[in-house]
Amino acid sequence: ESQLQLVSFFMLELCLVEYQMLKYCPSLLAAAAVYTAQCAINRCWQWTKICETHSRYTRDQLIECSKMMVQFHQKAAGGKLTGVHRKYSAFKFGCVAKVEPAHFLLGG
Fold first, then answer.
1. 13 vs 10, 48, 81, 104, 108, CA distance in Å?
2. Domain Cyclin C-terminal: where (predicted)?
3. Where do the domains of the chain lie?
4. Can you list the alpha helix ranges (DSSP code H) found in the chain?
5. Please, are residues 8 and 34 in contact by the beta-carbon 8 Å criterion?
6. Residues 6+ apart with CB under 8 A from 57
7. Residues 21-69: pLDDT tens digits?
8. Which fold has domain 3-107?
9. pTM above 0.85?
């Protein structure tokens, strides 16, 4: 599996235990996870027209959800619920939990 896919799965699994994420439909969560993962991996804003066409979501539609994902990512290693972080820290899952959160998304 690609790093993008694994980081996207990591983002989604972090959301599973967060009550406030229930307000988002699954397709938006999936698109936001891919967007957030791209930002974390590439360290830049990246949501192309192709991404928009395939997901049917614009960056503006994803940004609120994506910012929450970044916050969950920042807190993933600490607190009471660290299972997802431990899982994605394993070699089997590409150690993607070690990818630096896309902090810059929180500012824009």
1. 5, 24, 11, 21, 24
2. 3-102
3. 3-107
4. 3-15, 26-42, 49-55, 59-75, 83-89
5. yes
6. 27, 28, 31, 32
7. 999 999 999 999 999 999 999 888 778 899 999 999 999 999 999 999 9
8. Cyclin A; domain 1 (1.10.472)
9. yes
